[in-house]
């Protein structure tokens, strides 16, 4: 039955902060029942437990992109993640689907580090230096405008799951790659996966002319790495790996490729969020892990696998602050607002941006995850 044919009005939200956790959960479940199969809740692994418990599908940015693209019955997609993820879902779903982000301020500092004007300036400066084909590869953690730029210039989107395959694909299209906005994922993939020497990967600082590089360095480089990073994964330091091994010589260090080169170099295993999950879930009882990624996920893994010793790699590990903006009340309000015709907060990517961004995303979805 369509929601439009259901006469339901939920209580006003004037005093929701006085609700108990159980009351919030009950109202959220009641709204889910009303919306039925027309609702799809997507929850990123970094979400807090009281939110992710209501997700119909959980995953990293790559997996959730596939779920959004494959959705057929849903009329409403509530994305418990951050803004660029909701934009991606809007791009990949039909016009009949409305994507909602429970808190409009749930953004991504890394995505904000690549401004479209800066990227267009970079492109023009490069063209003044070299005539060799430059293929853009943008990480999923980027705005719709950057994805659109990438699609319009013959490039693709990637995630940490398929960055290697995306860069290989890009090199099949041209000799040079512009990788943005995460310098660490680009550098780690280029060196450890593709064997590209570090002196053939240059850092492009958008605040400096020619990215702070000489024309000779730009011509010599195979990968131009945009100066950007994840504030969460940037907290992990190589010294944390050393301390983890001192505490437990049997520990296995597994980290996300958004960590710095020096951390990745010392780790035992490196991979996407999904890669980390698969390895820990497959490990035997008694295994010991130091995990270099977002704290909510590490805590959830430790709770799910008490037969193993699972700890964060760093004593200063933190939650993704912008992801954490979405709380159980936000989710409840989003769901209750749909039957009440009070949508919180619809994400609509303009068509002129959507078309080119979809090209780049479809190129990514056509690649194997790697």
Average pLDDT number: 92
Tell me the domain tally.
3
Instruction: Assign a percent range to the helix content.
Output: 40-55%
What series of H and E elements makes up the topology? HEHEHEHEHHEHEHEHEHEHEHEHEHEHH
What oligomeric assembly is this protein in?
single chain
Written account of the structure:
The chain is an alpha/beta fold. The chain has three domains: 3-107 and 323-350, 3-Layer(aba) Sandwich (Rossmann fold), CATH 3.40.50.10800; 111-230, Rossmann fold; 233-312, Rossmann fold. Helices cover 42% and strands 15% of the residues. It is built from 16 helices and 13 strands. It has helices at 21-35, 49-52, 61-70, 83-92, 109-112, 116-129, 144-152, 163-173, 183-193, 215-220, 238-247, 261-266, 273-282, 295-304, 328-337, 351-366; strands spanning 39-44, 57-59, 76-80, 98-100, 134-139, 156-158, 176-180, 201-204, 223-226, 252-255, 269-270, 288-292, 309-312. A five-stranded parallel sheet has the order 6-5-7-9-8. Strand 5 (134-139), helix 7 (144-152) and strand 6 (156-158) form a beta-alpha-beta unit. Helix 3 (61-70) packs parallel to helix 4 (83-92) and helix 7 crosses helix 16. It is globular. The two termini are 40 Å apart. Mean pLDDT is 92; it is low at 3-7.
